[in-house]
User: Fold this.
Amino acid sequence: MKTTLTKNLPGFEKVQGYWRRQGFVKFVFVTLFAIFSYQAVSISNADYPEQSIQDRAHNQANKIQTNTARRGDILDRNGNILASSRLLKRVILDPMLIHPAFIPGLAKALNMNEEKLSALLAKKRAIKSRYLPIKKNITLTDPILKNLIEFKKQTVKVCTEKMVDAEIGLIDKMLNAINWKSVKAAKIKQSPCRDKRIGQAVVLRQDTQRYYPKSASIAPLLGRVNAENKGSSGIEAEFESVLAGVDGKSHLNFSNTGNKAYFNPQVKTKLSHGQNIELTIDSDIQYHTYAAIKKSVLKHEANSGSAIILSANGEILAMANYPADDPNDKSLYNPSHYRNRVLSDKVEPGSTMKPFTMLLALDQGKISAEDDELIDVSKSIGHLKTNQEVRKYGDAITVKKILQKSHNLGTVNVSERLSKQAMYDTWNKLGFSHPLGLIPSIENPGSLRHYSSWGMMDKRTLSFGYGPMNTNLAQLARAYLVFANRGAMPNLKLVKNMIYDEQKVQIFKPESTEKIAELLDSVASNEGSGYWSNIKGYSIAGKTGTAEMSINGAYDKNGAQRTFFAGFVPVKKPKYIMLVRLDHPKKCFSKGKVKLKRNCQGSNSAAIVFNETMKHVLTNDKSIRISLK
Assistant:
């Protein structure tokens, strides 16, 4: 009965259809939501298949931040900068993000040719590269930097052409969603335009560049840094741990506790900038030393040249070498031009050792070195013949004349009065064969064979700088400090504020050093072998030296020589000690008229460097000029 009545009620069919339609619509929406959720999770996991969404969120909120330490400066004794790190910028482009519409403005900002920039970007996009360093070493005052900052603020109308699906009807979308029927939309072309900024497609990164204001004049001493900004030679490498500092690293961890969310930075490594290093070098004296060495090497057609200047207390005021490259020019790099020959080359010093032979003999009472004392040179000793020297100076000469004329036979005659052990002990006290500890990584301390292995010829040749010893130029210069310290010898110093052993080694008697210093004054006179070192108005003492070069273990038969000059000024209480060395000079000039000489010696080559350098030094040092008055 109820059934019949219900069926007969008006509008029953309408109500029944409504519930079916409502159920169908709900089913469609649930299906669409399920599809959307699946696609979202699939796309998200495509790049990170092994990470959950929670893990990726955590990684994005946790990262290591690095603050780069600034490399310390290298300064001279007066605070002048010898090496410093300039703050610079570099421009990095992301070619995949740069639309052609940005190129004209970007090229203008970079001060580049538009076509060239476009070609570079296209080349990188072809290989899908997202990294293009377009400008490096931009100073903070460079107009390019200002241009780029302004350009990044500007908007450019960017139109992007793309193919999109044409709109399909709602019923077709529903049928596609439930896989009832596949309805494909037609493709149509669209070119929407929007105002955009270039954004992260252009990145300005901070950079540093090591800068050397004194250029090549001090390059072999300072060395240089490599592409990673680490010292590769010289002071830069030796004191890398001091200069480099330590990069600061912080762990940024996003915390969400209670009703607070924040980044919690945890320091893993504390930032520590590099320390400055102050050298004992005087950059003005260094420059004039380098200029004189360079001029002399070129003038005499020498292979190379080097020089060192010391103060009386052992501080190194200059250490110059040539050839040398400008470390600011990255296109130039010749390892030999960064060779610090003052420390790294061991050589036989030749006649520059004769004053020490005389000092030892005077100390032991073997000679008096007075004007009335004559040394017999009428007889040959070993391979040293008398013929030529006897004709020039006679059968007997004074110690002063031996030093003044650099007389080999006279020096050997004096050395015959000395024992092997006495000479060995004295040369050993003078520091020969002992490291100086200035730049240990490059220093060659030379050698001094024990006297027990000497023959008679070894002792004789040792007296004038050959035989069982060789040395570097810095060691030889240190030995000459006895003339500035009353027979004692201090340690050399290169870095200020370092702890040095200030104890001096007493080697000779004060009165002996004063006596021999007076005799060496005659060497730097017009009558002496060091005539080119003479500077009018100043008392100069010194000693020339010439040594044959050993090539492949044998002396060069073609006459390759090294020439030396060791000098100090003034003679009494010396303030400056300078050692000069030239390797294989081929053109030398004799006294008087500038006449070309084939035979190069310390008298006509190395002494010139001393003269030209000391003229500049003494002109700027009023204390010596006043004392001479």
